[in-house]
Design goal:
The complex is a heterodimer of chains A (278) and B (299). Chain A is globular and about 65 Å long. The N and C termini of chain A lie far apart (46 Å). Chain A is mainly alpha-helical and 278 residues long. Chain A folds into two domains: 41 residues; 231 residues, Orthogonal Bundle (MetI-like fold). Helices cover 77% and strands 0% of the residues of chain A. In chain A, helix 1 crosses helix 12. Chain B has 299 residues and is an alpha/beta fold. Chain B has a single domain, classed as Rossmann fold, CATH 3.40.50.300. In chain B, helix 8 links the parallel strand 8 and strand 9. In chain B, helix 4 packs across helix 5, helix 4 packs parallel to helix 7 and helix 5 packs across helix 7. The N and C termini of chain B lie close together (5 Å). In chain B, 45% of the residues are buried. Classes of the chains: A mainly alpha (278), B alpha/beta (299). The complex binds adenosine-5'-triphosphate and magnesium ion. Adenosine-5'-triphosphate binds next to strand 3 and helix 1 of chain B.
Chain lengths: 278, 299
């Protein structure tokens, strides 16, 4: 009886502590969202999407930054998904236990926690300095380098979770190893692969430092990837630090847009993953 | 079961073999050793399998039944540390003829530990996908693929043949009927195979296995997760399938082995202790170990 009571009490304390921690984390999140919404929603007008960066004191929007972010994040994610999923698959299914595999995994883990400013400098040395110019390509590559390790890691982890019985069953029917991976294992792991992509996207969508070194920014609308390009984070950075009220207001709008984009892509990704899983 | 550790695996055992006529065999393991890394778990096992018969493998847990099945279609090749030494003969063709396997067989023969025939090269053994197309396998735990019921059954067929939609429909229906699953799923062929019950999933795996029309179907305790009704259905299915296929089944259920099989092999600690017609083996076992096991004095 005593022990049962003791267990109930410790259990209660533990659950309470967990609940409290969750509450703290959620409160922080809600506060952030709340300040974003209250400060950003007022400036969320149509011209934010249709007009480019204004001169201080005049009317304008964020169109050039939005387009830039979509282009660079898009290209960055394509690179990261292709490289990351293939690398993660190789680690989980083929070479993960070889020396080379261990080295690759270790380096990937190092990259996973590499400061993004270093990645920016690296790409600057690699793609900006030699070509004497900032470019959106360089920006996309920097973002890809940041997202790839995340995609690689989640892909390896999620594939390792797939039961060997599934691989054996596929091979027992006469399918090759590669075909089993493509048509069965990837399918079984789809939700996890989508999660990896979403985590990668969430990481890069707000990155500022690496873009300052690579795509720089551009006050005009530009869709040429070989030239400097605006992006939401760099524009927010520039506007938030400025002394102009309307620039600061636009910075809040930009931050709200990033939050909305991450949120909605997460939701869409989850729904897609669930639908196809049925 | 508790005397398992006492008997050393190298100790000589009484072994008895009443093999079917050689010309009726479809697949055969000869003097097969199997290694999980350094651990040997099969010792010179012979398994002759007659065409269009059901051959049952029985024996206490851990005696190597699953290992033997996994060797027959070389599914162990998936794992670099595992290998078999000996011969697996499918329709007269040796299937263990890749360079490494031949080398191991030569090494074994040269040590004189087991007298064996000379290894002979044949191209058949190098084509694993061909082997697996001819020797299908259904595992102990149901393993539906994460796709629709229809696609599950069509999966293997698509690997080998390009079929029109109507041909494929026919194959899927026939396979599901043969596996006694058609009536339960005919209205939801496009639903995921993962949504079926455990017993239905197992029959789906049987349907998937027979859709490719293998010559031999290996079944590893297919009924262990099934309720009595599903088990009875599955047994009925197997008796039916025997007309077109050859079946090797591992089972812990002695009554089941006695009910459905034509030949039975009793394994113990990695050796084939006794092999013969099911009736003989159950009514008149020759080896003491077999007698103990089938009369239930053991494991
Ligand atoms: N992956 C593995 N690695 C190492 N040893 C293994 C592995 N799988 C099986 N073994 C060993 O090989 C021996 C035979 O195992 P196997 O699975 O073939 O037995 P079984 O007769 O199928 O038993 P059960 O009736 O419990 O399924 C056992 O001693 C087991 O410990
Ligand atoms: Mg087993």
């Amino acid at each position: 009886m005593d022990r049962a009571l003791f267990r109930r009490v410790t259990n209660g304390i533990f659950v309470g502590a967990c609940g409290l921690a969750t509450l703290i984390a959620l409160t922080a999140l809600v506060l952030i969202l709340w300040s974003l919404i209250t400060k950003g929603i007022g400036g969320l007008e149509l011209k934010v999407f249709t007009e480019s960066q204004p001169a201080p004191g005049s009317e304008g929007g964020l169109a050039n930054a939005i387009v830039g972010s979509i282009l660079m994040c898009g290209l960055g994610m394509v690179i990261a998904l292709v490289v990351g999923i293939l690398a993660g698959t190789w680690l989980a299914e083929y070479g993960g236990q070889t020396t080379y595999g261990h080295v690759v995994r270790f380096l990937n883990d190092v990259l996973l926690s590499a400061p993004s400013i270093l990645v920016g400098l690296f790409v600057y040395e690699l793609l900006v300095a030699p070509f004497h110019g900032f470019s959106a390509y360089a920006g996309a590559v920097a973002l890809a380098i940041l997202a790839t390790p995340i995609v690689t890691r989640t892909t390896e982890d999620i594939l390792a979770l797939q039961p060997n019985a599934l691989r054996e069953a596929g091979m027992a029917l006469g399918a090759s190893r590669a075909f089993v991976i493509r048509s069965i294992i990837w399918k079984a792991a789809r939700t996890g692969l989508v999660t990896g992509g979403l985590l990668g996207f969430a990481r890069i969508s707000g990155e500022t430092a690496p873009l300052l070194f690579t795509s720089l920014g551009n006050q005009f609308m530009n869709t040429h990837m070989s030239q400097p390009m605006a992006s939401l984070p760099t524009t927010i950075f520039q506007f938030a630090l400025s002394a102009y009220d309307d620039w600061q207001r636009l910075a809040w709008v930009g931050a709200l847009l990033i939050a909305i984009a991450v949120l909605s892509i997460n939701i869409i990704g989850r729904i897609l993953a669930r639908e196809t899983h049925r | 079961m508790n005397d398992v550790s006492i008997a050393a695996p190298t100790q000589a055992e009484e072994q008895y073999m009443v093999a079917p006529a050689r010309e009726n065999l479809v697949i055969e393991a000869r003097k097969l050793d199997f290694f999980y890394g350094k651990n040997q778990s099969l010792y010179g096992v012979d398994l002759p399998v007659e065409r269009n018969k059901i051959t049952a493998l029985i024996g206490p847990s851990g005696c190597g039944k699953s290992t033997l099945l996994r060797a027959l279609n070389r599914i162990y090749d998936l794992y670099p540390g595992q290998h078999a030494v000996g011969r697996i003969v499918l329709d007269g063709n040796d299937m263990l003829t890749d360079r490494k396997s031949l080398q191991r067989l030569r090494d074994r023969n040269s040590t004189g530990a087991t007298v064996d025939e000379e290894p002979q090269a044949s191209r058949a053994g190098s084509d694993l996908t061909q082997l697996r197309a001819r020797v299908g396998m259904v595992f102990q735990k149901p393993t539906p693929f994460p796709m629709s019921i229809y696609d599950n059954v069509a999966f293997g067929v698509k690997l080998y043949h390009r079929k029109s939609k109507s041909e494929m429909d026919a194959i899927v229906e026939r396979s599901l009927r043969r596996a006694a699953l058609w009536d339960e799923v005919k209205d939801k062929l496009n639903k995921s195979g993962l949504g079926l019950s455990g017993g239905q999933q197992q029959r789906l795996c049987v349907a998937r296995g027979i859709a490719v029309e293998p010559e031999v179907l290996l079944l590893d305790e297919p009924a262990s997760a099934l309720d009595p009704i599903s088990t009875a259905k599955l047994e009925e299915t197997l008796m039916e399938l025997k007309r077109d296929f050859t079946i090797v089944i591992v089972t812990h259920n002695l009554q089941q082995a006695a009910r459905i099989s034509d030949y039975t092999g009793f394994m113990f600690l990695g050796k084939m202790i006794e092999f013969g017609p099911t009736e003989d083996l159950f009514s008149n076992p020759r080896a003491q170990r077999t007698r103990d096991y089938v009369t239930g004095r053991f494991g």
